[in-house]
Amino acid sequence: xxxxxxxxxxxxxxxxxxxxxxxxxxxxxxxxxxxxxxxxxxxxxxxxxxxxxxxxxxxxxxxxxxxxxxxxxxxxxxxxxxxxxxxxxxxxxxxxxxxxxxxxxxxxxxxxxxxxxxxxxxxxxxxxxxxxxxxxxxxxxxxxxxxxxxxxxxxxxxxxxxxxxxxxxxxxxxxxxxxxxxxxxxxxxxxxxxxxxxxxxxxxxxxxxxxxxxxxxxxx
Length: 220
Prior knowledge:
Layout: H1 4-14, H2 16-19, H3 27-33, E1 44-47, H4 53-60, E2 68-72, H5 75-84, E3 89-92, E4 109-114, H6 123-134, E5 137-147, H7 156-162, E6 164-172, E7 179-186
């Protein structure tokens, strides 16, 4: 949208640690972070949608507006999102409060799409955000997070504490600046087998390409 850059830049100027980027995400990154999501994914929880770059792409992929819950902390972005996506549920709140708010009955969410600057946040806040988000995610669901760095923005100790694993989806080299998207999922539960030691699940968190990823190197 024509005025999105100015709105985003002014928000970044007023609170750079909260916004985390000087410009809205580009089409290449929006396409990548939503690539594994479709109408059949079900309810989607979007954290830090900003001006709605990822939200527009989710709608184009067939996600129904009523299946979108947008969590935005910036009051300026909040008003914009309400106008642009009247069919979605738009909530003005800190994503760290997901642990105390009940947004859904049960855990129906198929995917969480995050535009939050996790690297700018304390470890305690990251834990609150992830644990809260995953409390709504159904088995097999995923949390999609982008980063400008070369590794997962969620530290290894946090992944271990929450029993999560991280995998690279791919890199959006055409985004400005280049970005990467990683998928966080729950680790498989180990089953005890009498007379045979259970294998410990992998704890590697490097952004390794999945079977979806193209074979090339690279990273809001």
